Amino acid sequence: RPAGPGVVAEHVMAVMGIREDSGAAAFAAESAGGSVSRLVRTLASRRLLLVLDNCEHVVDAVAELVISLLQAAPYVKLMTTSQERLRIPGETIWPVPPLSLPLPDSDTAALQRSSAVQLFAARARSVDPGFVLDAVTTPKVTDICRRLDGLPLALELAATRVRTLGVQELLNRLDDRFRILNSGYRGAPQRQQTLQATIDWSWSLLSPQEQTLLRGLAVHAEGCTLEAVEELCAGTGIRGDEVLDILARLVDRSLVIRVECPSLPRYRLLESVAAYAQRKTHELGETAELARRHLRYYAELAERARPHLHGRDQRRWLQLLDAESANFQRALDEARRTGSAQWALRLANALTWYWFLRGRLGEGCRALATALATEGQAPAAERAEARTWHTGLGMLLGESGAEAGAEQDGDRPERTVGRARAEWFLGFAEWSLGALTAGEQRMNGALADFRALRDAWGVAGGG
Asked: Is residue 257 part of a domain?
């Protein structure tokens, strides 16, 4: 493996046919530094474009060589390809994105115009001449391309399986992508023979801290914010003030994708990179701990957002919660799986007003039902609050038997602001559905609690 700029310079000279035994005095040195000097002297007056490919494994050496060339050879232009930038003056970055993917709900013709779909179809026909991209196969091929993030190598590896599996079975088996995409083309570099080998190559170039951060990112669903990365990496040997720099290096390597959102920038992994990092997490025995941290962070985020949904920053916090819907669902699933009833109830209760404001009553009702069915210990007030919200949302959805849900609380657990607001909402639901007397009584009871608890919003809304 090349280790310094001199060795890289020797490779460049070999490809360009620059002889080291020309006899010129300037070419007499045999050291690594002499190789750089010889290459620079040779190219000093030349006009050419020099392309250096796959520089990521020798990026420091390439950077040193390029600096020397730019200083002494003014007519030489350089283009380098790498998973990370050289970080030198004068460098212009041109990211190479995955192939284009069609927009959701596109018609068949639009799906077939996608460059990712076209590449897959071309490679599939090369191994199966009978393959046809038609109204039946096109949506399935599109789903395969989306699952593989439009990555050309992954699409080519997948297409080789069409003759054996067909597109539907191939799509069904992509959850086990590293076993399925394990047969490349003869003559390709070893690291491009399988999807596993390709990501192994990229992983091997990362520092331990970068690998740790990737494993932390992989626990999220549909990306996360910088704050979430900082929180989940706490206690892993990475200090909070180090996270940004490490994350920036991963973005530079295109292993992490930055996505602009209305609230805050988000960072996500390509699906194949996430699957690989999750396997590494499992191998290291970190899965349970990362999932626990993920659950705790998103439950506390929902609780932190809750008061802002009743204030002047409501719009900003609604947008923030919109972006985290998938993470909230993943956190709730983890709470149910591990019997963490208190965390499940805290998360669901904190999101109730959000679901109501967004008109996502069915989603809220299902989440509350999941939280109430989660095993484990939890305060009676938390359960009562969730049950009351579940009843109110169910009534507004017209679910039969919803009214009975709030009657299980004969002992009236400790009154809290959350419980009082849930009672007020249930009264609102009863009033809205024509049960005027019952609704008024319940809302008046909630108003008394608001006053006792000094809840200004509740007094204003309930009065």
From this structure: no
Predicted TM-score of the model (pTM):
0.82
> Who contacts 266 (Cβ-Cβ below 8 Å, separation ≥6)?
223, 224, 225, 258, 259, 323
**Are the C-beta atoms of residues 391 and 356 closer than 8 Å to each other?**
no
Given a cut of 50, whether residue 31 has pLDDT beyond it is no
Of 199, 232, 258, at which residue does a domain stop? 199
Does pLDDT of 27 surpass 70? no
pLDDT, residue 85, reads 86
Q: Identify which has the larger pLDDT, 398 or 408.
A: 398
Specify which residues 49 forms β-bridges with.
77
The upper half-sphere exposure of residue 203, i.e. CA atoms within 13 Å in the direction of its Cβ, equals: 21
In a domain, 364, yes or no: no
**153 and 191 co-located in one domain:** yes
- Total domains in the chain come to 3
Which range marks the domain in which residue 112 is found?
108-199
